[in-house]
Amino acid sequence: MRIAACFLAACLLASPSFGQKLDGKYDAGKDGGVAWQINNHGTLMWGGSPYLPVGVSVDPTPQSIAAAKAAGISDVIVDLPASDDGWDSTISALESSHLRYLIRIGSLGPMAKGIAVDPSSYRISDVKGPKHVELSLPDATEVLAVIAQKRDGAIQKWERVPVINGKLVYDAMAPQGIESVILFYPNTRSLAQPDYWEELDGHRDRLLGALRHHRPGPGLRGIVNPLGKTLTLPGPNIRFVPTSPAFRAEFALFLENKYRNVVNVLRAWSLGSQIVSNAQNGEDKDMTFSFDDVAKFVPLWSGTRGVAQFWDPGKNKLFSCDIRHSTFWKDLAQAVNLAENRRYQRIVDSIREVVDVPVVQEWSGWASPYEGTSPSVDGIGMKASGTSPSAIIATASKATSSLLRWKTETSTDLEGMLHGWLPATDIDLGEGSSASSQLGGVLDDLTSLGARGIFIRTSDPAAMKAVAAEAGRRASDVGPSQYSPRAVFFPENATNPAEAQRLQGGFWWL
User: Fold this and answer.
1) How many CA atoms lie within 13 A of 416 on its CB side?
2) Cα(24)–Cα(33) distance, integer angstroms
3) 225: alpha, beta or left, given left = phi > 0 and alpha = psi -120 to 50?
4) pLDDT of res. 432
5) Contact assessment for residue 99 and residue 123, using Cβ atoms and an 8 Å cutoff
């Protein structure tokens, strides 16, 4: 046990080996390789020239690639799985068409197992007696079902209920005549929480195998989403408690390093005074805890919703707490984000050892791989969708906000910024003539927001020809490579009435 603890401590304290890169040399097996760098204005300089593509997304098929080429497109982004399925034919088609391309890992990322704590969604309200419940929970194995009074949150009954073949069947024995709420806490897999503890190594090995055995050619310009497809990435507002043994061991060590003894953990998490007193005095052996024990605790609230209880799945008991002062969610987010930073960095470093090109993560929430002063990636992929300029700006501007805050802790000037590449990797304007008619204005807005390369999601031949025409008109304009957007920031909780928009003097309100 001590050896395992020492190993985990070393992992927790280890710093990333590289971090964000500003330059490299891509060797496609000919001509000695091509040098690249990201300049001070967030532009990818490839072989000394600014790379400012205007292109489209294509499917990983020769037919889709040929259609883009026929429309006059020169730059594409293509989704390929972490496994090597379809890599040979896709890369062959891209290279034979002499296209420049980004590879986006489009298969699902490894999903963590754990307890979803979302009382706003997993609930049945206005229950006034026994109720038969049937719910579809495709990835769940069981739920913790809690029946509580709506008036004061007092728990009337709770139990663990199996989920069979993705379906929950539950006869809730709520008391007659008392308005109650039924809360469910599924043991499931999460699209919002990648599995950094058990399945990430397998994902990494499959991806590296595909890159080694089906090496891209001279047209490659970057790798996008190395973890694969995720709903979001963890940030400060985590609402999912991983349950893998590796996570719990890591969380236990995190708590030990931070609090030194279990009593301090119980106090910080605002458990009841009787529980804290017993843990301190050891009078009731059934109510004493180790760091391994508390690392298994699951809160039954998030935000202001839910009930003010912890569930201990090890002892299968509930413990009351003061949710207003509990630091549990803050501690969990910090521990998960530390794991995310380390392991995300390792997979990025591994990719660079095989293909030394920029590695980009599409914006997926205020997430640690690209938030703060030590980003793990070389850039952020801007995503946007909508049929109006305001909708496009509202969704695209968050990536700009994250990247423009890549600064050292002490510097506020341009020289102190960490400069990342900001390609707009997924811009969905919808289909039809209106999308084509607004294309020029959208490209102007995204470029002003800092996008240095734009890929439109469309399969419509007319729209692709419009994209190709815009690419031709902008091909000689290197101006965007020589300036950076300037921002005035507002806190996200001020959204509505505040909204991202262009200000006078060349500033953006983000």
Assistant:
1) 9
2) 10
3) left
4) 65
5) no
What is the structure's pLDDT at 415? 47
pLDDT of res. 416: 47
Type of residue at 144: L
Please check whether residue 65 is in contact with residue 464, taking contact to mean a CB–CB distance below 8 angstroms.
Answer: no
- DSSP one-letter code for 480: G
pTM, entire model: 0.89
Burial 274-299 (b: 16+ CB within 10 A, else e): ebbebbeeeeeeeeebebbbbbbbbb
Residues 188/140, Cβ–Cβ less than 8 Å: yes
* Distance, CA of 196 to CA of 336 (rounded, Å): 9
Q: What pairing do the DSSP bridges indicate for beta strands 240-242 and 220-224?
A: unpaired
Q: Cα dihedral sign for 485, 488, 492, 497?
A: negative
Residue 53: name the closest of 506, 403, 428, 481 by CA.
Answer: 481
Cross-strand pairs, 80: 105
Nearest to 156 by CA among 143, 142, 173: 173
Q: Are 354 and 209 in contact (CB under 8 A)?
A: no
Q: What Rg do the C-alpha atoms of the chain give, in angstroms?
A: 25
3-state secondary structure of 54: strand
Q: Strands 379-385, 359-362: parallel, antiparallel or unpaired by DSSP?
A: parallel
Are the C-beta atoms of 364 and 232 separated by less than 8 Å?
Answer: yes
| N-term to C-term CA, the chain | 48
Pick from 305, 298, 297, 307: which is nearest to 148 by CA?
307
Could you tell me the CA-to-CA distances from 197 to 50, 261, 368 in Å, in that order?
A: 39, 25, 17
Give the SS3 label for residue 356. coil
Residue 479, phi then psi, degrees to nearest 5? -55, -45
User: H or E segment at 323?
Assistant: none
Specify the pLDDT at position 74: 98
Q: If the chain, 510 residues long, is cut into consecutive pieces of 10 residues, what is the mean pLDDT of each piece?
A: 41 49 86 89 95 97 97 98 95 97 96 96 94 95 96 93 96 92 96 92 96 95 96 87 96 97 95 82 75 97 94 93 96 94 93 96 92 88 88 92 75 57 94 74 94 95 94 94 91 88 90
Residue 477 phi, psi (nearest 5): -90, 105
Closest CA to 258 of 9, 3, 461: 9
**Helix residue spans in 196-354 (DSSP H):** 200-213, 245-259, 262-268, 273-281, 291-294, 328-354
Question: How does DSSP assign 382-420, residue by residue?
Answer: EEEE-SSHHHHHHHHHHHHHHHHT-B-SS--SGGGBPP-
Instruction: Count other C-beta atoms under 10 Å from residue 213's C-beta.
Output: 10
b/e string for 319-336 if b means 16 or more Cβ within 10 A?
bebebeebebbebbbbbb
Token digits of residue 418: 């960490």
Q: How far is CA 408 from CA 82, 340, 487, in A?
A: 33, 20, 17
At residue 280's C-alpha, the angle toward residues 279 and 284, to 5°, is: 45
